[in-house]
Write a structure and sequence with these properties.
Blueprint: H1 10-24, H2 36-42, E1 45-51, E2 58-65, H3 66-72, H4 76-82
Antiparallel strand pairs: 1-2
């Protein structure tokens, strides 16, 4: 899912998140989002990826449990992004 709740009101967002949790019991659900709070609420694992300006290739900076990414990221770029220092 690409930004599944980006333009929704809070009540609709809650319903979509409930559906994602239900589906996650049976399926692998992959979400692409800039909403750090939503990622923290929903994800078991998180990947942080960056693309270099003017370069068409991206980089997987870090992949770990969501808790590790948000509480003890191993890369300073990940820490800066999830803390809101940039992005």
């Amino acid at each position: 899912m690409d930004e599944p709740c980006s333009a929704l009101d809070p009540i609709s967002t809650l319903r979509v998140e409930e559906l994602i949790r239900e589906l996650a019991g049976r399926y692998t659900v992959v979400i692409v989002t800039h909403n750090m709070q939503q990622a923290k609420r929903l994800a078991d694992f998180t990947a942080f990826m960056l693309i270099e300006p003017f370069n068409r290739s991206g980089e997987l900076v870090e992949f770990a449990t969501t808790r590790k990414i948000f509480e003890d990221a191993g890369d300073s770029r990940t820490r800066d992004y999830v803390s809101g220092r940039f992005g």
